Write the structure tokens for this entry.
Amino acid sequence: MSFRARHLLGIEHLAPDEIRAVLDLADRYVELNRRTEKRSDVLAGMTQINMFFENSTRTQASFELAGKRLGADVMNMSVAQSSVKKGETLIDTALTLNAMHPDLLVVRHGASGAVNLLAEKVNCAVLNAGDGRHEHPTQALLDALTIRRAKGRIHRLTVAICGDVQHSRVARSNLILLGKMENRVRLIAPPTLMPSGVEEFGCEVYDDMKKGLEGADVVMMLRLQKERMDGGFIPSEREYFHRYGLDAEKLAFAKPDAIVMHPGPMNRGVEIDGTIADDINRSVIQEQVEMGVAVRMACMDLLARNLRAERGARATEVMA
Amino acid sequence: MTTYITNARLIDPEKLTEATGSLLIVDGRIAEIGGPAPEGATVIDANGKCLAPGIVDMGVRIGEPGDRHKESFRSAGLAAAAGGVTTIVARPDTTPAIDTPEVLEFVTRRAREASPVRILHMAALTKGREGREMTEIGFLLDAGAVAFTDAEAVCTNTKVLNRAFTYARSLGALVIGHPQEPGLTAGSAVTKGKFASLRGLPDVHPMAERMGLDRDIALVEMTGVRYHADQVTSARTLPALERAKANGFDVTAGISIHHLTLNEYDVGDYRTFFKVTPPLRSEEDRVAMVDAVASGLIDIICSMHTPQDEESKRLPFEHAASGAVGLETLLPAAMRLYHQGGLTLPQLFRALALNPAKRLGLAQGRLSVGAPADLVLFDPNAPFVMDRFALRSKSKNTPFDGQRMEGRVIATFVAGQKVFDADL
């Protein structure tokens, strides 16, 4: 088994063979999830805590389902409205949870690097479910699995990532993963929503969406946060849709068999035209959701194996 | 009281020379250089180690009043003595701010009682450092304020600033600005670029510093005030500084040792001890700043000593407090620049001791007959591994923790009195 990490904090620290290991295992969980009898027991006896400092119905549900299908005891903590409001620090929250001996900790936090900080303080495996603008590794892995299943490969593809790249952890994790797997990555955004220095990551940068989409195999749309829509970063919602919303006219510049992706939740009519999102020949948005559960099962399975191996080794030492 | 230090490598920042020789201290002043030992003098054999003017550290934050758990005059004074700093120039960004003669008298008395090294005080330029009304600059000068600054609080009301500069000019007071455009810097934690994008941290373009300096220099041109920029850290800012000096304005600039020895990538995986204000810059900027110190364009190196407790640093990077302690690490960190060949020892002490003393009108900072015997004896080559818990500061937030460093202080003298002895 070639997955070596203790935590899953970001794609940055994964090697290509580790990424492939996740995708291969996730493929098997896709099959499991399509059966009537979905239960597995690889996490039996283990405790999984989902700690979401930012609200997210979709991601939290996906992680919860993944854990339950693997037989873990899953607990959800919406930290957004609890002790954090009372002034408890992130570290204290982490130490409190750690004392309850969880095995897997799934964390989402609004500040970049917060999950790394937390991982330093606990004894269990930590999965980053999104930290600030930094990374969202399971999203990139589920996107990779979706692409691999649709296109038959996850290398030498031209992938266009469009929208609010600046504030997107999804974009960051994806461009790192796609780069590691030797794809051509194009970033398309209005200049106010494009992070600086991205050319140095080996990406091609476009502010003209049609040019950026030319010949693309995959079109990955990003969500535009409501609070960024008016005046601050872009002039208006309608101007944004006109220039950067994915409609049939712009999609025609991509390859005829290009697939359309979106991490959800979508703003129909802002970044994507509803008819494209619903086009079963182009849109793989529902598959992404399905792959999400499978990929999260694979990640937790692999981390649990490493955790067991580590603890087994320690137990052997104690016995000897 | 007569002390004779022999066999020392004398670092003279005025003549920019170094030579082995002896130095005689009589009654707290340098009495002779290169002469014989008079009878009855206490003789110290320097064993060929370096003797330089003590560091005048311009811009040290001490937690009194308000944050004494982070740093007191006592702990700061001890740290300074161990670091070869003989004059601390304290910042007024305390709680409350040092903005009245009464508060200034309080800290002056506290500092005198508690510290083994000299402590001078800067006062706020505006009341509460709020940028709305100027402080009693005249009274504060009379009470001993050596300069006027709102520290990192940038006054956005140029009318207020214009009047404060004009008034300060009439009294010959030195004002110290923090050249940053606050609209651009708001909320930022790192410098714009590849690293910021990789870590997903809120960033600021270094041009914010240039814009801040351009504005301040325009006000200097209007008012004729004596002006010092606390930190110039980016190559983008240098042309503005160069132009101001070429135009004959009374303008100087400083930089923290951290911006000369570290770059943005040192932040690594969100290490908050590397979060400083302004944020660490690119390696290209760092190299340009070392060159600017060598050429004299940047006048002063300081520690920007900013103590922060563990709680305020053990937070996600963008929420963590900014600043690093530096009193004890300033000299060994500066030795990195010497060992890397960027700066000679006399050039370093010109920026660490002579220039700040000159800028504040002090007699310190010189290795010449008649100057106060504020001296540091140090071994520039002595290696050690930095252990933050060995620091004398109450706060241990140094970015150099665990790093290999060279340069140890052997002894520190203030007015001829030994205030630190490493007992090597």
Summary: The first strand of chain A starts at residue 47 and ends at 52.
